[in-house]
Write a structure and sequence with these properties.
Farnesyl Diphosphate Synthase; globular; mainly alpha
Length: about 400
């Protein structure tokens, strides 16, 4: 069992870390821009994006209810119900899109997140050859961000592949293929789609392989997983564990790329820098395993913390990740918005009640220090949101 970091680990980084944080956020103009970005994003989200998201979720809920196979229908409907928050959070990136393209961006992001959540659940179902089957269903992510004029990269058979081949349950009534086609069609109508699709396909492939190998590691050990992640991480500046976590969360990078495709000025270089940034932001979702550590142990489904032997090393790496991601974001177009996304990811996990556990608190403390002062108001908002959810639950279920 992973033990809580010692006192020294809780203070990593100390003087150097605080100095670095000061350098990142010493620019008061940046702080002002980040605050403005948060205000603008909220205004745009609740006035224009949220209604679109609700319509898209209703669309796919209705479509899921029509799936002929009872098992697939249950899986799809449960995912839409249980992971609705994932869809809503992903769609916040649509606030970056110009209003004329925002509806298409929301359509693409919602459908892509639904694909990701659904195929991730599919890979957890029994299969004859889990690795082959996992790569086959996760290919839906890559197909979704492949445009029609890029058909020369794949055969026609590959583009309309049977994602359920060799599965006992396969009759989804075209549900998954329709999701794939929806993303591809909406993306194709964005002005800079051609500039981001190669990067998005690579990100989708990275996500698929990380997910498949991570699932396999539970049965066959981590050797193959570690070899792959070490090789892939070699030019990213990330450790293999951080690369693995970021890769499994690469759907977040694809969402950011879709939003960027709505900007006529986006270039291939912009897409590559954005993907690198969101790989680092995605790596910070290891905090999910931190705050859910005991629950994961109790359920027999250990999270990413099983790849770390020393919690002090993890604490240090988390702080470095946050620092580097913030510094990278400030140099990008819409950098203030991306910084608020970074802060929001950290605040979401750091505001969980279990973030105060003996294990979690010293692991989250260094990263909170790195993101001061921006994280303070965001943490307050997240805690208020969590409290309101608990109050609504109590009112609805009488404390159950």
């Amino acid at each position: 069992m992973l033990k809580a970091p010692d006192r020294a680990g809780a203070d990593v980084p100390t003087t150097a870390g605080r100095a670095a944080a000061s350098r990142v956020f010493a620019d008061r103009w940046l702080l002002a821009r980040a605050g403005a970005a948060l205000f603008i994003a909220n205004a745009r989200y609740w006035s224009t994006v949220a209604p679109l998201v609700r319509r898209q979720i209703s669309r796919w809920d209705e479509r899921a209810r029509a799936i002929p196979d009872p098992l697939l229908r249950t899986l799809a409907m449960n995912k839409l119900r249980d992971e609705r928050f994932n869809v809503e959070v992903a769609a916040t990136l649509a606030t970056l899109a110009p209003s004329v393209h925002r509806a298409r961006v929301v359509e693409a992001i919602v459908a892509l997140q639904v694909i990701y959540d659904y195929v991730d659940l599919l890979t957890e179902q029994p299969a004859g050859e889990p690795a082959i089957d996992g790569r086959r269903v996760f290919a839906a992510l890559r197909d979704a961000v492949t445009l029609e004029h890029e058909d020369d990269l794949d055969s026609e058979e590959d583009r309309s592949r049977d994602y359920y081949r060799d599965r006992p349950s396969s009759e989804d009534g075209g549900y998954l293929q329709e999701l794939v086609d929806t993303v591809s069609s909406a993306l194709a109508r964005l002005p800079s789609a051609a500039a981001i699709t190669a990067v998005a396909r690579a990100s989708a492939a990275r996500c698929a392989e990380a997910q498949v190998l991570n699932h396999e590691a539970s049965c066959s050990g981590i050797k193959e997983l570690r070899q792959w992640a070490t090789l892939e991480a070699s030019d990213t500046g990330l450790g293999w564990q951080e690369f693995l976590v970021g890769a499994t969360a690469s759907v977040l990078a694809i969402h950011a790329l879709i939003a960027a495709a709505a900007d006529p000025g986006t270039t291939r270089e912009d897409a590559e820098e954005l993907d690198a940034l969101y790989l680092s932001i995605g790596a910070l979702t290891v905090l999910d395993s931190v705050v859910d550590y005991q629950h994961d142990l109790d359920s027999g489904q250990p999270g990413f913390l099983r790849y770390y032997d020393d919690p002090n090393v993890l604490a240090s790496r988390l702080a470095i990740l946050a620092r580097d991601a913030a510094a990278r974001a400030r140099g990008l177009p819409s950098g203030a918005h991306h910084i608020m996304t970074l802060v929001g990811v950290v605040a979401y996990y750091a505001s969980a009640p279990t973030a105060n556990s003996e294990l979690a608190r010293p692991l989250t403390a260094p990263i909170r220090r790195e993101l001061r002062p921006l994280i303070a108001p965001t943490l307050a908002l997240m805690r208020a949101w969590r409290l309101s959810k608990r109050v609504r639950r109590v009112r609805r279920f009488g404390g159950g």
